[in-house]
Design a protein that fits this description.
- The chain is low in regular secondary structure.
- The protein has a domain of 64 residues: E3 ubiquitin-protein ligase SopA (Pectate Lyase C-like).
- The protein has a two-stranded parallel ribbon with strand order 1-2.
- The protein is globular.
- The N and C termini lie far apart (63 Å).
């Protein structure tokens, strides 16, 4: 089946396309919410800017595909093959990626809030600048991956293999779970406190009384965060989201607040 035929049949009301193989795979910008593409062959397909919200793609092959800025919110992609797939700026909130293959995939700037990646394989995967807030990464293999400037607030990393992962500039808090992780291959299982200690020099901890002086928190999702008494002197908060955050008695002198969202933020000098 080619892409044009699939769109025509979807437009006519058909939703179940299980097991099809897409030829001439250009579905860029396609509007296909709720489509069923389980066990489909979609290798190297272009789905950039497409809307597949709530779709079912369990066991599908999407390796080498271009899914830039795709909307897959609330979709099911269990056991999917996304090896070397481009998912930059993808909308993946609450997506089910359990046991997915994500090795060498690019998820830079992706929104994965509330997603489930339990037992996924993500060797050398790039999650730079991605929002992994409250994401389930239990048992995920992140070996040699990159979480540079990723948001890990409330993320569950229990039993995760974090060997040689780049945590530079990532954001984490007291709700980030590191129980029973493998932090560096060959060194055994460290305690959560050992990992917190190792992160102090490379990552950014946010919470009451945090020292964030001069930190780059541009475009960070800090909604609901308790930053009371935090030192944000000279911090770059350009475009940061502080919706319902607590900034009581925080030091914001010389901070860059251009474009920041301070709606319902509690701030007392």
């Amino acid at each position: 089946m080619n892409a044009k035929e699939l769109i025509q049949r979807y437009t006519a009301g058909e939703r179940d396309f299980q097991g099809v193989s897409i030829d001439q795979g250009n579905l860029e910008g396609a509007i296909l919410p709720g489509i069923i593409l389980s066990n489909c062959m979609l290798c190297s397909t272009c789905l950039g800017n497409a809307n597949l919200q709530g779709a079912i793609l369990d066991n599908a092959r999407l390796d080498l595909a271009d899914l830039t800025n795709i909307n897959l919110e609330n979709a099911s992609l269990r056991n999917v093959n996304l090896g070397e797939t481009i998912l930059a700026a993808a909308h993946l909130r609450h997506v089910d990626l359990r046991r997915a293959l994500l090795s060498d995939a690019v998820l830079i700037d992706a929104d994965l809030r509330g997603a489930n990646l339990e037992n996924a394989r993500a060797f050398s995967t790039l999650f730079d600048n991605s929002n992994l807030r409250e994401t389930n990464l239990t048992g995920t293999e992140l070996v040699e991956g990159s979480l540079k400037k990723a948001n890990l607030q409330g993320t569950n990393l229990s039993n995760t293999d974090l060997s040689f992962v780049n945590f530079s500039g990532c954001i984490y808090d007291a709700e980030t779970v590191f129980d029973d992780c493998l932090y560096q291959a060959g060194y055994g299982l460290p305690s959560a406190e050992d990992i917190y200690s190792a992160l102090r020099d490379v990552a950014i901890w946010v919470g009451p009384g945090a020292n964030l002086e001069g930190c780059d928190l541009s475009n960070a999702d800090l909604s609901g965060a308790n930053l009371s008494r935090a030192n944000l002197n000279q911090a770059n908060l350009n475009g940061a989201n502080f919706t319902k955050a607590i900034l009581s008695h925080a030091n914001l002198s010389q901070a860059n607040l251009n474009g920041s969202n301070l709606v319902f933020c509690k701030h007392h000098a």
